[in-house]
Design a protein that fits this description.
Blueprint (H helix, E strand, L loop, with lengths): L5 H10 L6 E7 L2 E8 L5 H10 L9 E5 L1 H4 L27 H9 L2 H4 L4 E4 L3 E3 L4 E2 L4 E2 L7 E7 L6 H13 L3 E6 L19 E2 L10 H4 L9 E2 L11 H9 L3 H15 L5 H16 L3 E4 L7 H21 L11 E4 L12 E2 L4 E2 L8 E4 L2 H4 L4 H13 L6 E5 L16 H10 L3 E5 L33 E2 L2 E2 H17 L2 H4 L1 E7 L2 E9 L2 E9 L4 E6 L9 E4 L5 E3 L4 E6 L4 E5 L1
Parallel strand pairs: 3-4, 3-18, 4-9, 9-12, 12-13, 13-16, 16-17, 17-18
Antiparallel strand pairs: 1-2, 5-8, 6-7, 10-11, 14-15, 19-20, 21-22, 22-23, 23-28, 24-27, 25-26, 25-28
Helix pairs in contact: 4-6, 10-11, 14-15
Length: 580
């Protein structure tokens, strides 16, 4: 298969008549430095050519950009207030205006392309509770998307379903997949405007104590968050408040007919979990959603994920059959699970103390790796070699999603953003797939004065700091962004980075190789870190044959392998070598 590399990617964009590449620069220590190029919008035609000529997409090497829709970008101020959500809230605990249109704007501008993003994970889309609740941290609305009121309607604060469809189309045209964040464990909290669902649907106690499987699964995660009875197979009637809502909105007959068809096709009993599974898979079948991020996965019987996974795969295949011109590849539907506390060193099993569960055997392809934020304090070689060994050993054929910060981890790696370049290097060069949390690439502040709890991690995206000369802890924001872009493009073009086998080539200078072979495709890279600036003469130890033309993705320099070595003159300390 012919490789479409970094330089030819730029040429492809220009060949299809897109705008010229824009230089991105910043000032540091009184000097002007050209750091990178901005990547303009790709057209549908260029995306098709990328699919034909380019690197195959592997979820094991995915770079996933995770954003809170409400906090990313406000593309349409007209949808900022709905359902009378105007009450005063705690700091960063109300809606801030971000929406689907804002995400689409950045897709069209090529922002995600420039980072080498291959999948977007947005917080849940569905209509949130209308009222607010006080969690002891100030009144809070469901701005984050995890407090569902109605699984059959998109929340208007995020936009319309048509705007969601446009977002998915724009992403797919650029070869970017969409991960949908799904919640089955609970409804939204009870408020003055949002009554509790019937007892046959939810439990309101006891609270989880996390001492065993039972006290983690059959309980309420937190106070005032009704837990759906996912263990039950008993048929239930729809909540009266939901039926009245649908009737007021003029879609009662439509929703009931859809449910009748679903239960007739599947033979499932009309139990709570199967209603929700139907509602969650509707958007896959309608728009071609590529995968799920499973919220609070360990708080639900693992068999539920098997049922959801099977139905989602059927829905995805139905969409592909009905939209043959829009199909990106032959990958199956993908599911990555949030099992809080799971780490890569646990292998396939998660322990509840009295029971171990292999979530990978329940249609789950990957697990979010809560261990990475601690692993990232290790040396490069210790980190990379250990992760490669686990992924090639106990986890062979499965994956992990590494992250340095997220929306609800109060102890991320480098919360103060004092080591953003190191954080990006370790995240994007580590074996496994990588999650960039919005603003990791721009040193967005994770400490907001006055914000309590998770709210401090969920500030507005710092767009105003990009290109303004802003610095954090003496490191220019644009330098961090450039660093992420170079690493991200390298990762996107080379499956070996995340999915390949790691091999140390030398300790000083520190060099390693990654090699990948599968599905009729082969890829090899060599990376050098903590090198001396200036002239670099690197021994490649047989990774590339003599006469091979290589590109350093970090500097854009090209060099030919001679006598098993390559010589480069670059100003930085990083070298990212891949074949033309």
């Amino acid at each position: 298969m012919k490789r479409l590399n970094h330089n030819s990617f730029r040429g492809l964009l220009m060949a299809f008549g897109t705008i010229a590449l824009l230089p991105v620069s910043c000032h540091r220590n009184g000097e002007h430095h050209l750091l990178s190029y901005a990547y303009p919008e790709k057209t549908t035609e260029s995306a098709a050519l990328l699919q034909e000529m380019g690197t195959p997409f592997l979820w094991e090497n995915a770079t996933i950009y995770f954003l809170l829709t409400d906090r990313f970008r406000n593309g349409d101020p007209s949808n900022d207030v709905n359902f009378g959500r105007t009450g005063e809230t705690g700091i960063m605990r109300g809606f801030e205006g971000g929406d689907f249109s804002g995400v689409t704007e950045k897709l069209e501008a090529g922002y995600f392309d420039s980072l080498g993003i291959t999948a977007l994970w947005l917080t849940p889309y569905f209509e949130q509770v209308h009222g607010f609740t006080d969690e002891g941290t100030g009144d809070t609305y469901g701005y984050h998307g995890y407090w569902t009121k109605d699984w059959t309607r998109v929340d208007p604060n995020y936009g319309t379903e048509a705007e969601l469809a446009e977002l998915v189309r724009e992403a797919h045209e650029r070869g970017i997949r969409i991960l949908m964040d799904v919640v089955i464990n609970h409804t939204g909290p009870v408020t003055d405007l949002d009554p509790v669902w019937p007892d046959a649907w939810v439990r309101t106690g006891p609270p989880c104590t996390f001492q065993s499987y039972e006290t983690t699964v059959s309980c309420t995660l937190v106070e005032n968050l009704p837990d759906i009875r996912t263990e039950s197979d008993e048929p239930v009637e729809l909540p009266e408040d939901l039926l009245l809502k649908w009737e007021r909105e003029g879609r009662l007959a439509q929703e009931l007919a859809g449910l009748d068809a679903f239960f007739a096709r599947t033979g499932f009993p009309r139990a709570p979990k199967y209603y929700v599974i139907k509602w969650l898979t509707d958007l896959v079948r309608r728009y071609g959603i590529d995968g799920y991020r499973l919220d609070t996965a360990k708080h639900i019987e693992e068999s539920v994920w098997s049922d959801l996974g099977r139905e989602a795969r059927i829905a995805f295949m139905d969409w592909k059959k009905n939209h043959p011109q829009e199909v990106l590849d032959d990958n199956e539907f993908y599911m990555v699970a949030e099992v809080y506390g799971y780490g890569i060193s646990s292998g396939r099993y998660f322990s509840f103390g009295d029971r171990e569960v292999d979530y990978f055997s329940h249609c789950i392809d990957a697990m979010i790796n809560f261990e990475f934020k601690n692993s990232a304090h290790q040396s490069f070689e210790t980190l990379f070699s250990s992760y490669s060994n686990w992924l090639e050993g106990a986890l062979d054929g499965k994956g992990v999603l590494n992250y340095i910060s997220s929306h609800d981890d109060s102890h991320p790696f480098d919360r103060e953003r004092t080591r953003p370049l190191e954080a990006g290097t370790k995240l994007l060069l580590c074996p496994g797939s990588a999650q960039i949390y919005y603003g990791d690439e721009t040193s967005r502040e994770l400490v907001i004065p006055g914000a309590v709890g998770d709210a401090g991690l969920r500030g507005r995206m710092n767009w105003e700091e990009i290109g303004s000369g802003a610095s954090r802890n003496g490191i220019p924001v644009c330098e961090v962004l450039t660093h992420y872009r170079r690493l991200g493009q390298f990762r996107k073009d080379h499956p070996a980075v995340g999915a390949g086998v790691h091999r140390k080539l030398s300790g000083k200078p520190y060099l390693f190789s990654r090699s990948y072979s599968g599905q009729g495709y082969e890829d090899r890279v060599v990376v050098g870190l903590d090198l001396d600036p200036g002239r670099k003469r690197l021994k490649l130890k047989g990774v590339f044959s003599n006469g091979t033309l290589l590109t350093d993705y970090y500097s854009g320099t090209r060099a030919t392998v001679r006598r098993g070595k390559v010589t480069l003159h670059t100003p930085g300390k990083i070298v990212l070598l891949g074949m033309e």
